[in-house]
Write a structure and sequence with these properties.
The complex is a heterotrimer of chains A (253), B (278) and C (362). Chain A has helices at 2-15, 42-55, 68-76, 89-97, 146-158, 171-179, 190-195, 226-237, 239-247; strands at residues 31-38, 59-66, 83-85, 106-111, 113-117, 138-141, 166-168, 185-189, 201-203, 213-219. By secondary structure, chain A is α/β, with parallel strands linked by helices. In chain A, the strands form two sheets. In chain A, strands 2-1-3-10-4 form a five-stranded mixed β-sheet. In chain A, helix 2 packs antiparallel against helix 9 and helix 3 runs parallel beside helix 4 (89-97). Chain B has 278 residues and is mainly alpha-helical. Chain B has a single domain (49-269), classed as Orthogonal Bundle (MetI-like fold), CATH 1.10.3720.10. Chain B is built from 14 helices and no strands. Chain B has helices spanning 27-47, 53-58, 60-93, 99-106, 108-111, 114-125, 132-139, 147-173, 176-183, 188-199, 201-217, 220-225, 236-246, 248-269. Classes of the chains: A alpha/beta (253), B mainly alpha (278), C alpha+beta (362). Chains in contact: A-B, B-C. At the B-C interface, helix 9 and helix 10 of B face strand 7, helix 2 and helix 4 of C. Chain C: InterPro entries: AAA+_ATPase, ABC_SmlMolc_Importer, ABC_transporter-like_ATP-bd, ABC_transporter-like_CS, Mo/tungstate-bd_C_term_dom, Mop_domain, P-loop_NTPase, Transp-assoc_OB_typ1.
Chain lengths: 253, 278, 362
Amino acid sequence: MRLRALAVAGVLLLLVGCGQGSGGSTGADSATLTVFAASSLRDTFTTIGEHFEATHPGTTVRFNFAGSSDLAQQIVQGAPADVFAAASDTTMKTVADAGRTATAPALFAKNALRIAVAPGNPKGIASFADLARPDLKVVVCAEGVPCGDAELKIEAVTGIDVQPVSEEPDVKSTLSKVQSGDADAGLVYVTDVAAAMGTVEGVAFPEAEQAVTDYPIAVVQDSGQAALAQEFVALVTGPAGQTVLQEAGFLAP
Amino acid sequence: MTTDRPAPRVRRSDDHARGVALPGLLWVPAAAAFALIALPVVGLVLRADWARLPDLLLSESALTALRLSLETAAISTVLCILLGGPLAAVLARGRKRWLRWIRPLVLLPLVLPPVVGGLALLFLLGRMGLLGRVLDTWFGITVPFTTAAVVLAQTFVALPFLVVSLEGALRTAGDRYEAVAATLGASPWLAFRRVTVPLVLPGLASGTVLAFARCMGEFGATIAFAGSLEGVTRTLPLLVYLERETDTDAAIALSLLIVVVAVLVIAIARPRGADGLR
Amino acid sequence: MTDPWLSARVLVRRPAFTLDVEFTAEHGEVVAVIGPNGAGKSTLLGVLAGLLVPDGGEIRLGDRVVTAPGLHVPPHRRGVGLLAQQAMLFPHLTALANVAFGPRAHGVPRAAAEARARELLAAVDAADLAHRRPARMSGGQQQRVALARALAPRPELLLLDEPLAALDVDAAPAMRSLLRRLVRAERQTALLVTHDALDALVLADRVVVLTDGRIVEQGPTREVLARPRSAFTARIAGLDLVPGVALADGLRTADGTTVAGRLDGVAVGEPAVAVFPPAAVSVFAQEPKGSPRNVFPVRLAAIEPRGDVVRLRASAVPGGPGWVDGLAADVTPAAVADLGLEPGMVLWFAVKAAETAVYPAR
């Protein structure tokens, strides 16, 4: 998870201003589909990718999971992506405004926040208001990151000032601070709690519905695999993809 | 009265000196290397939104981050000197044979990706960490998310720069002057204070500059270990990383600020430019 | 009979040789240690200074034992000063601060230390250098300041490791007379390592000759240098020496050659050395007629101009005696021209028996 941050930096260096990268291979028998997806989609999209490869023999799906805004920047600078799945409307808008989308973005999922705590909830956190307790170390995503924006929206709506000890650059970092025990609570997505498989426990809170994050998906302009990309989008928005997403905790679009 | 000849002095190169010419071919890769270093910075300068620059750089978050960066880097650099100086002396002059195994380990923070270093610090000093657990239960002290954690992360990554520079200078200087000092009656500590340290000040200075610059630029270990919160742990590099999500111009402006501060530090500390370890 | 002030027994095992020496010195005495390179002289000084730990032995200074099995007093507590070939002045300190360093290291307050420093700088004719840094001094000036620095803390024993070797021809005599004034005349106990007989004669009361880690000769300076008993000492003293067994009228060498000379305190049959000055050797291009005594064939190895005489160095000729290797003969420059001397030529050396002394080899 940390190394992903490094991978982002490395990819950024290589791809910025580099023009077309290797892209997909153009052999008749094998094709590579490059999908840029928000990090909160890692587990679900990996599964969907495997499904896609099974139904499209000879195709390899290559993922680049990172923060949505990083990915948006890369695509705007010309990174060789075929599909972009973002964790916020604003980042997708950045890409669309730059003329880098080939299709109109389609909403394929929604995600709501959930409080992640240590298994057994030792600090007895039961509500969003509890997060303002002075004895708690709470971590959130930073402003500008979709889950951070959602958290701030909830703060504004409820009038509760959480006073986190750290504003992490992406949701996985936030989660890992809770997993390592250094933070008592973290505001992450429902899907992250589910994917953590018991290393954290989730505390639902009603205000989460006030700041649900939209997840749009679009085919990227000048993709070398436009047809395949369309099919991938169709898979994600279709019943098979939706099942995977909702089983992981995403809300229907 | 005496006819002593003056001892040979080091001459500055002048236009008349020829000596052995530098192979002309070397200029080509040298120019490429310089371009690799300089052009990205030039790119930043050209891309910057100069109209917005004052607002961006004088914003509260920017000034807070700048002050935090300078304070933590200064403290970390001092720590590097206080800890790294003796380590360099031991490595350069110590006579135990097992020291040769320690020497490569000192380079670890250079070789580890900084984020991995931050993780390692977390496993040691985090609330569930080896030492952190003790600190938390017995003293109620937690290290992550504090400014102290920033200092620790910076010191961790910058120590090798200081140790390696200083160790090199100490080795080159040799210990003959210290032997003379001993025959004059100086205890090992006095010889260290009045002979060793003054003689390696140039090496110490260049090591300090490197360490400070590394502290100013430190990101991975800081964010993994200390977190990111304005005024507490969000140094300039962390602010740049945050701003790039929303406001690219701000990120570029802050990056330029880091470059300017680094260049200032180098210029102040080594005004004669590349004079080697003299 | 009181015990000598300095008594040293030193054993150091090195890959090239083993240093195994035992000697003494009285308080206030200057002892010269001479020997070829690699004989162990610097090792000996290192052990005395406390910078090297010997493999065995004991060193006593006055009533203090500073080195013994299991005991090693570190250099800064020995009271042993060191002046080497290189001045090694601390580059970052002025001459005054350099000289004051020793007293201050012993706890003397700054004012008193600087006063002592000025006193010594004046004694070495370097008072005007007090505020200069070493980089701006000549080699001779640096060495004078270094002497002042070594003397400043009043060391009980002063070690001088070829102090004049790095000085040029102009600076050496001044330094030599400084050493004579400040070391010998002040009765500073000192050990002087040197290659130069003149240094030994001017500065030292006694001489110790060290070869391959062992002492081969020792005694009062004039005596040792006037009557050398080993080839190396003879070389230093500028004399020729031939080892062998005493005969009634001279000496028989190992290969059976007879060298005629005057016996002096040696009985027939005793191991002896025949010593003569190079001036006592006549040089011939052909074997001289009439077979005078002490005529030996040599090959000319080197020609060394020495002011108004030329010293010829010999090496062995196949079929001739082997002990002529290194023998010296003094001739006039005119003779060199007349004989057309060139290295490699075969010559005949004739040694005047009247100027050849044969005495015990011991």
